């Protein structure tokens, strides 16, 4: 009986992936609804503090940065400045500076961002021949791109040198066209790509598509799919049946200071983590939205207060799942919580792991890649 049950799950999972593959391959980026907000692009000569204030004003966490040739360099993310300011503040003895702008203007950004001499990959290095334009405009020349020589630069202390254009080389842009399918986006975003830029025939960006937007689209498709896949309903398929292995979770406590939490996020190269109580149960989470809120206040003194005072109230059940959560439940939870990660809890409600959007997208495309 158990063997028959395993076979039914396997067949259902195969049917689910095949059906979803066909649906996502039939929909192109150009078929998606128009963005609700106009595209935000940061000019290359804008200074850092105004650039991040612009992100806040437009309620976005990142934006592409133009170069002086009307091409694009990369993305600038709000987390870049906040985490870096935390590092700067941690080494500063000047307690009289309470405004972020004052703090930013005092330090060498090359020591914080450690911008590589050459980007990890070219702004137009193709991840997939179908999805990426062959054009490869290079970023503008960067003064003293080597961190060592930059330290020796006479102007290295000035904000005029360390512009968004310089920092954007850390986050290269992956370009796709309006004819790119949602399945191709799944393949890209299952491999460390957080977002892609859609460009027109004139090589101008017309919209940004993120992992979250893609998950929302898949969630809508799941609701439209037939209730039955073969002999087994979609609701029968669980997170465990997708073959996802939850990763170990990096967490913080409600009483840890904001600066401790930000340093933890920076050292692990993550943009969010759960807040776990002394009983081992999920209390809340730290997300990029808190970084926006922190930057809005502009007062450095906030980094010393408990992290629980800065995060917005959250229902822990909306950001947690179990191995027995169904595929539909997992996608709905991602979509409704607008979170890039969900936390795995056991029967007693104790946090035992974390599952990200990338993990789910990778599980969806894995069988098709074999």
Number of helices, where a helix is a run of at least 4 consecutive DSSP H or I residues: 13
Mean pLDDT: 75
Computed Rg: 22 Å
Strands side by side in the biggest sheet: 3-4-5
Helical content (DSSP H or I, runs of 4+): 25-40%
Shape: flat
Strand content: 5-15%
**Which stretches are low in confidence, meaning pLDDT under 50 for 5 or more residues running?**
108-112, 115-161, 228-232
How many β-strands, per DSSP? Answer: 12
Distance between the termini: 29 Å
Structural class: alpha+beta
Largest sheet: 3 strands, mixed
Order of helices and strands: HHEEHHHHHEHEEHEEHEEHEHEEH
Please tell me about this protein's structure.
The chain is α+β, with helices and mostly antiparallel strands and 370 residues long. 35% of the residues lie in helices and 14% in strands. It has 13 helices and twelve strands. The protein has helices at 2-25, 48-57, 78-90, 100-104, 110-113, 147-151, 164-167, 182-189, 211-224, 258-267, 288-297, 327-337, 357-369; strands spanning 62-66, 72-77, 175-176, 195-199, 205-210, 228-229, 232-233, 273-276, 282-286, 320-321, 341-345, 351-356. A three-stranded mixed sheet has the order 3-4-5. A three-stranded mixed sheet has the order 10-11-12. A hairpin with a 5-residue loop joins strand 4 (195-199) and strand 5. Helix 8 crosses helix 13 and helix 9 (211-224) crosses helix 12. The radius of gyration is 22 Å and the shape is flat. The two termini are 29 Å apart. 37% of the residues are buried. Mean pLDDT is 75; it is low at 108-112, 115-161 and 228-232.
């Amino acid at each position: 009986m158990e063997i028959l049950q395993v076979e039914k799950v396997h067949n259902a999972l195969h049917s689910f992936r095949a059906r979803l593959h066909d649906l996502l391959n039939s929909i192109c980026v150009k078929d998606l609804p128009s963005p609700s907000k106009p595209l935000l692009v940061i000019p290359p000569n804008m200074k850092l503090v105004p650039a991040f204030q612009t992100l806040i004003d437009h309620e976005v966490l990142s934006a592409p940065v133009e170069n002086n040739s009307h091409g694009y360099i990369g993305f600038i993310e709000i987390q870049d400045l906040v985490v870096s300011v935390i590092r700067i503040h941690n080494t500063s003895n000047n307690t009289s500076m309470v405004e972020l702008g004052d703090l930013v203007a005092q330090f060498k950004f090359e020591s914080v961002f450690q911008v590589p001499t050459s980007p990890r990959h070219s702004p137009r290095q193709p991840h997939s021949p179908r999805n990426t334009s062959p054009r490869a405009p290079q970023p503008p020349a960067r003064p003293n791109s080597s961190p060592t020589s930059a330290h020796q630069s006479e102007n290295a202390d000035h904000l005029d040198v360390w512009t968004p254009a310089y920092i954007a080389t850390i986050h290269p842009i992956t370009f796709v066209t309006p004819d790119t399918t949602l399945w191709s986006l799944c393949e890209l975003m299952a491999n460390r790509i957080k977002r892609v830029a859609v460009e027109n025939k004139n090589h101008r960006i017309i919209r940004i598509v993120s992992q979250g937007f893609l998950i929302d689209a898949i969630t809508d498709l799941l609701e439209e799919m037939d209730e039955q896949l073969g002999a087994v309903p979609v609701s029968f398929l669980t997170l465990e049946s997708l073959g996802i292995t939850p990763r170990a979770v990096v967490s913080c406590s409600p009483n840890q200071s904001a600066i401790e939490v930000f340093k933890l996020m920076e050292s692990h190269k993550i943009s969010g983590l759960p807040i776990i109580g002394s009983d081992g149960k999920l209390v809340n989470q730290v997300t990029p939205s808190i970084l926006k809120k922190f930057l809005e206040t502009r007062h450095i003194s906030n980094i010393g207060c408990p992290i629980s005072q800065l995060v917005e109230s959250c229902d822990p059940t909306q950001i947690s799942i179990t191995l027995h959560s169904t595929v539909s439940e997992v996608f709905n939870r991602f979509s409704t919580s607008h979170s890039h990660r969900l936390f795995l809890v056991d029967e007693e409600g104790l946090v035992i792991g974390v599952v990200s959007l990338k993990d789910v997208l990778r599980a969806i495309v894995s069988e098709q890649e074999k």
